[in-house]
Structure to design on (1086 residues):
């Protein structure tokens, strides 16, 4: 097997071809309306926003900072502008059931008009109705009525009095009522004198008195009925007068709103209510009570007068109240009270007929908000209910406004984990959010993408109010976008990172009083960001350079190799070498993964060690037993090891220990391996290489140092300038390997060796040494077993 | 209208305030009003409680029954019970009088007598006395005519009579004086009205009933009298209209109190009853 050729600098960095950028500065570039490379999301949005059927709400998935919100808002803003403006909604008093305010829909913009009309009507009622009651016509009619009734009331009494007087009987008023007594000359006869009357006379008087008493009794007992009749007739008169007064303004309003039967119906109810409360309006001095006039007001819940197209609402605090609206209370003398004018609409109301954008994580962290949202979407109507009521914590009488039918498209923004968790654990979720709009993390980097990406950067720079960028700066940004994507053939689509970088580059350009952002400003922004995040990396490097953490970068050692690992801290990550060691002695074919034994190794790492164990057995033991007891350890690793990217390094170090052949410490190795010894791609190669490069650099002059990495990882390389410079000068080399044998040859300088038909490796090759050593182990094991068996047999025979 | 010199002293405070008490709610309200007037005038209040002889006699009959004014229920009546009830009412009247008048630091006395109310009051009242009474019995019901006692006293009392009513708290705040352009005692009536207006700090309206439109002479005389007392008033000359129209005018003027002379033609035209029916406001009838 031949050793692979080292990579040249063009293979480890994909430069942005300047000829593809046909502009001097980004000023010359037009804005990009929709971001490039997000066709999947855009098609999903287009579909979801247009789809009318129930449950086709959207979930836009993507990492945080990918620009989901901005994209969705921009897309919907354009999409919704062609759609019809939805209705205005208002709550009005329910005259049949005061606790359940009615909801009325009016064409967009007419809600204000209706509110104004009703306020006008209330003002008119305040003045016109008292004026009617003050009018001469009303007063004289009332007078006539009262007189008539008073006459009827008193006539009976007068008639009785008259009749009594005609019969010489006086009707006397007592403190509590009336009594009758015989009289003469207008005065009551003294009872003593009455005794002198003849029996006939007495009988006559007494029978008359008795008759009069009965009549009086009947008359008095009729008075309540008469009074009731008066009340009814006065009420009827009041109603008639109010009807006449209201006739004009009500007629106008009914005419004006005749196109809305519900409004006309409401107006009729208002008229009936005013008529019913006619007496309350009678007090011209104090006017009707405020509480009465409030009933005729209109609570305009949704005002779409200024809305253009369908509304697109973003609710930044999607709690239950903000979504569904709430019923507020006013404190009056220590008592809380409410009425329909204190009903406040929520974002669902405002978005009705349009789109509501919500952050999935925020809505899930608000109590009951998620359940309320689902309830609205399932029922197709918004009910305003307080949380206390939903939880059943209060039982006081409160308003239950009539539910408002809702047709809203909800767009949830969230990361992928949330989407998959909700799909898995919430059985309602997929019924309600059928459209999945998955954001691309990266865009393809091909010849066509440069101009689009440049326009995207131009759009972004305008959005963040940064200076225009020069062509070089755009090229540097594009190259960095590839590095962020960790792929020469990709560009990151992460909106926030690019925007932050642009803003910072603009800051540095400003510091140098530049009018344009050039490549040096972009580079400074990248370097500064890296520096700010480098404290832990620097401490880690310092530990290595001071020898606290032992990493050898020179010489050759048996059973020791430099593996490479990546540490992710917040948004930044860096690579560093780790010493991996191995031991080998005769045994029962086991490879002890010390990390796993110490419970510091993760399952993927354990799997990788098992794979390498089986690889050893199949390659070197053939049909026989693998008589090996080996161990593998990541030295000075205390935080746990996970992943399979060290399996090549582990295999090499184990083979070195078995064959007793030293490995070159100037190399670091990364890559995973399958059971056939083929090398497979791993992640974080740029950081790993740069991490080892820094360690070598810190250890002294760079000389023939290098990294072995899977050949399939080459297209992920976007290495930084100083590594490329060292490569150009031949001080640092990167070898792409595709088989374990290549790694062995590079690390040992020996030929690995290919087995012949009988499975024997060529003499002097590395593999033959391994095979020979394993054979020796097998013999040693057998001998040991025989000795043990003999010893035991001897004992038995002795017995 | 006349410019003849005043035959009696203008200041009415020289007399007493006689208030008719019968234990009814309206008589208690009238007592309050009387006490207020007396407090302003510094006058003595004489409560008059008359045990009507007709009532006592009627209770003396074996067949006597009382028909309840509200319920219509009939129950037996006898003299002893009536005497007791009247005594109870008299005690209540005394207590009310002490409370209302004594509380204001004024002199007060209760005169208990037996006989007819009109006769007893006329026997007690002098021309300087102001007689205050509430509308009593079933004439107190809204919309009813003036009772015989009130009618009799308004016509016969030697001095001024104030017929008190249950005032509703409305913003009727003017003192309105109703005059005839041809009556003799206008001067005195206007004086009483000016005193009332001053006492209650209320504006004054003078309504002059005249056959002649405008009647500048009558208006001039009134203006002179007002000027002499440094008072001002709105003067309106009105035709000799019916009680109904007067009532409407009074409402227009937001009349809170009405002052008129016993000689006013309203009395002659038998309209007084209607005016009383129409207006639920205190009426002062001057002699």
């Amino acid at each position: 097997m031949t050793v692979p050729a080292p990579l040249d600098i063009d293979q480890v960095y994909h430069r942005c071809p300047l000829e593809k950028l046909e502009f001097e500065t980004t000023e010359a570039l037009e804005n990009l309306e929709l971001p490039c490379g997000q066709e999947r999301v855009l098609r999903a949005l287009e579909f979801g926003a247009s789809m009318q059927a129930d449950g086709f709400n959207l979930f836009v998935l993507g990492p945080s900072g990918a620009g989901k919100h901005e994209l969705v808002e921009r897309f919907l803003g354009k999409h919704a502008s062609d759609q019809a403006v939805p209705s205005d909604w208002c709550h009005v008093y329910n005259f049949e059931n005061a606790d359940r305010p009615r909801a009325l829909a009016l064409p967009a913009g007419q809600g204000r008009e209706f509110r104004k009309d009703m306020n006008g009507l209330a003002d008119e009622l305040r003045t016109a109705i008292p004026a009617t009651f003050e009018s001469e016509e009303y007063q004289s009619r009332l007078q006539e009525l009262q007189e008539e009734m008073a006459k009827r009331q008193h006539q009976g009494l007068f008639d009785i009095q008259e009749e009594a007087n005609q019969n010489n009987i006086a009707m006397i008023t007592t403190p509590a009522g009336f009594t009758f007594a015989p009289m003469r000359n207008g005065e009551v006869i003294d009872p003593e004198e009455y005794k002198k009357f003849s029996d006939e006379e007495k009988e006559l008087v007494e029978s008359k008195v008795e008759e009069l008493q009965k009549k009086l009794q009947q008359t008095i007992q009729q008075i309540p009925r008469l009074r009731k009749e008066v009340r009814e007739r006065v009420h009827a008169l009041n109603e008639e007068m109010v009807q006449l007064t209201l006739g004009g303004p009500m007629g106008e309003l009914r005419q004006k709103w005749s196109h809305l039967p519900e409004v006309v119906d409401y107006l009729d109810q208002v008229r009936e209510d005013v008529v019913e409360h006619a007496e309350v309006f009678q007090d011209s001095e104090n006017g009707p009570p405020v509480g009465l006039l409030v009933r005729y007001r209109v609570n305009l819940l949704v005002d779409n007068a200024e809305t253009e197209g369908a509304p697109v609402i973003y609710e930044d605090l999607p709690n239950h109240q903000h979504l569904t609206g709430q019923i507020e209370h006013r404190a009056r003398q220590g008592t809380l009270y409410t009425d329909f004018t204190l009903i406040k609409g929520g974002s669902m109301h405002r978005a009705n007929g349009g789109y509501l954008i919500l952050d999935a994580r925020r809505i899930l962290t608000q109590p009951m908000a998620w359940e309320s949202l689902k309830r609205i979407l399932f029922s197709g109507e918004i009910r305003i209910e307080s949380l206390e009521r939903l939880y059943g914590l209060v039982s006081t009488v409160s308003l239950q406004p009539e539910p408002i039918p809702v047709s809203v498209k909800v767009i949830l923004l969230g990361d992928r984990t949330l989407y998959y968790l909700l799909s898995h654990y919430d059985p309602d979720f997929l019924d309600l959010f059928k459209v999945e709009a998955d954001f691309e993390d990266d865009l393809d980097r091909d010849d066509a993408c440069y101009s689009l990406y440049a326009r995207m950067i131009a759009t972004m720079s305008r959005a963040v109010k940064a200076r225009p960028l020069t062509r070089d700066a755009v090229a540097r940004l594009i190259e960095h976008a590839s590095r962020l994507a960790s792929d020469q053939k990709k560009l990151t689509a992460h909106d926030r990172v690019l925007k932050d970088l642009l803003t910072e580059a603009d800051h540095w350009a400003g510091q140098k009083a530049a009018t344009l952002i050039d490549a040096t400003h972009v580079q400074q922004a990248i370097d500064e960001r890296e520096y700010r995040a480098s404290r832990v990396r620097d401490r880690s490097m310092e530990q290595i350079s001071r020898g606290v953490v032992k990493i050898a970068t020179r010489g050759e050692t048996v059973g020791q190799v430099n593996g490479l690992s990546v540490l992710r801290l917040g948004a930044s990550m860096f690579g560093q070498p780790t010493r991996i060691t191995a031991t080998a002695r005769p045994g029962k074919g086991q490879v002890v993964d010390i990390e796993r034994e110490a419970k510091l190794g993760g399952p993927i790492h354990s799997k990788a060690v098992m794979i390498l164990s089986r690889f050893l057995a199949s390659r070197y033991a053939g049909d026989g037993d693998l008589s090996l007891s080996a161990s593998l350890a990541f030295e000075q690793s205390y935080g746990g090891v996970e992943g399979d990217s060290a399996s090549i390094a582990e295999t090499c170090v184990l083979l070195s220990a078995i064959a007793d052949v030293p490995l070159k410490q100037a190399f670091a190795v990364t890559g995973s391996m399958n059971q056939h010894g083929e090398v497979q791609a791993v992640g974080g190669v740029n950081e790993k290489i740069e991490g080892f490069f820094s360690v070598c650099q810190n250890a002294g002059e760079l000389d023939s140092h290098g990294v072995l990495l899977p050949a399939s990882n080459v297209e992920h390389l976007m290495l930084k300038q100083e590594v490329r410079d060292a490569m150009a000068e031949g001080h640092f080399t990167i070898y792409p390997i595709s088989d374990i044998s290549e790694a062995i040859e590079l690390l040992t300088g020996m030929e690995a060796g290919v087995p012949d038909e009988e499975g024997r490796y060529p003499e002097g090759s590395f593999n033959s040494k391994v095979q020979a050593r394993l054979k020796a182990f097998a013999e040693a094991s057998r001998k040991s077993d025989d000795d043990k068996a003999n010893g035991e047999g001897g004992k038995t025979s002795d017995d | 209208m006349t410019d003849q010199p005043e035959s009696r002293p203008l200041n009415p405070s020289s007399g007493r305030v006689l208030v008719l008490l019968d234990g009814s709610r309206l008589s208690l309200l009238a007592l309050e009003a009387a006490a207020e007037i007396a407090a302003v005038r510094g006058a003595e209040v004489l409560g008059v409680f008359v045990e009507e002889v007709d009532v006592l006699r009627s209770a003396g009959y074996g067949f006597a029954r009382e028909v309840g004014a509200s319920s219509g229920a009939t129950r037996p009546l006898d003299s002893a019970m009536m005497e007791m009830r009247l005594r109870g009412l008299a005690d209540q009247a005394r207590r009310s009088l002490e409370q209302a008048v004594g509380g204001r630091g004024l002199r007060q006395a209760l005169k208990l007598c037996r006989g007819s109310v009109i006769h007893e009051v006329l026997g007690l009242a002098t021309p300087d006395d102001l007689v205050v009474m509430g509308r009593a019995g079933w004439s107190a019901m809204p919309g009813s005519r003036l009772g015989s006692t009130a009618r009799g006293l308004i016509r016969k009392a030697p001095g001024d009579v104030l017929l008190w009513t249950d005032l509703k708290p409305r913003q009727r705040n003017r003192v309105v004086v109703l005059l005839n352009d041809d009556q003799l005692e206008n001067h005195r009536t206007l004086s009483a009205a000016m005193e009332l207006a001053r006492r209650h700090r209320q504006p004054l309206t003078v309504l002059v009933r005249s056959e002649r439109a405008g009647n500048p002479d009558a208006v001039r005389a009134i203006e002179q009298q007002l000027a002499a007392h440094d008072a001002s008033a709105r003067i309106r000359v009105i035709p000799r209209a019916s009680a109904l129209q007067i009532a409407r005018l009074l409402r227009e003027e937001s009349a809170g109190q009405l002052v008129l002379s016993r000689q006013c033609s309203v009395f002659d035209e038998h309209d007084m009853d209607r005016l009383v029916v129409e207006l639920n406001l205190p009426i002062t009838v001057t002699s």
